[in-house]
Amino acid sequence: MLSDFLIFPIPAHSLALWLELRLMTRNWANPRLRYAGLGLFLYALTLGLDLLAAVAPSPTVGQFLARLQWPLLFLPAIFWFGATVHLLPEETPWQHCLNRSWGYGLLPQAGPFYLVGVGSHLIFDFRSDPPPSGPVYSLLPGRSFS
C-alpha cells in the first residue's frame, strides 16, 4: 500500500527541508550555518528524489530519478564536513589547513564527482535495480573493505 510507504519519508523530508530553511535564513554569512543548511538541502533533495522515484509513472522515469539520486547521497556529508571544520576554534593549528583543503580540494571535486556519477556507470552501475557499485567506487575513500 502506497500510504504505508509514505508514512516516514514525507515527515523526514519535511523536517529536513524546514530545518534547512531555518538555518539558511538565520544567518547566511555564517559559514557553519550556510554549509549545514546546504547539506540539509541536499539531504532533503535526496529524500525527495527517492520519494518521486518510488511513485514514478513509468520505470524509465523512476530509473532516471534514481540515477540523479544515488550520487547525491555523498554530497550532504561534504557540506557537513565543511560546517564541522568551521566549528573548530580559530587558534587550532590545523583549522586553517583543514579549511583550505576542504574549500580548495574537496568542495570543487564534488561537482565533477556528481556529474560522473550521473552520466556514467563508473560509480554506480544503473543497468540493474538496485544499482551495484561500479569500478571507480572501490577507489573512493571511506568505503567499507569488508
Structure description:
The protein is an all-alpha fold and 146 residues long. It has one domain (2-139). Helices cover 65% and strands 0% of the residues. It has six helices and no strands. Helix 3 runs antiparallel to helix 4. The chain starts with a helix and ends in a 27-residue tail after the last helix. 17% of the residues are buried. The model has no long low-confidence stretch (mean pLDDT 82).
SSE topology sketch:
Layout: H1 2-5, H2 9-26, H3 31-54, H4 59-69, H5 75-87, H6 95-119
Helix pairs in contact: 2-3, 3-4, 3-5, 5-6
Summarize the entry for a quick read.
With 146 residues, the protein is mainly α. It is built from six helices and no strands. The chain has one domain (2-139).
Shape: flat
What count of helical segments does DSSP give? Answer: 6
State the major sheet. Answer: none
Give the averaged pLDDT, no decimals.
82
Report the order of strands and helices: HHHHHH
Number of domains: 1
Q: What's the gyration radius in Å?
A: 17 Å
Fraction in helix: 55-70%
Residue ranges: pLDDT <50 for 5 or more in a row?
none
Strand proportion, as a percent range, falls in under 5%
Structural class call reads: mainly alpha
Number of DSSP E strands: 0
Calculate the terminal CA-CA distance, rounded to whole Å. Answer: 35 Å
